[in-house]
Amino acid sequence: MLFDATRYKAMKVMATLKLQGQQRVACKVTTKRQHSDAVAANLLNQNFNL
Question: pTM, whole model, 2 decimals?
Fold first, then answer.
């Protein structure tokens, strides 16, 4: 059974059922670079046709 539903109708139905939307959590940074770390050498030098 398919039917058209506007966002306002969905908000009304969710309010009557006491439902709330859940917002996604932003991506969490798990690794942090230390400025004392050495940078790898650029061996290709953006020449990808080696």
Answer: 0.41
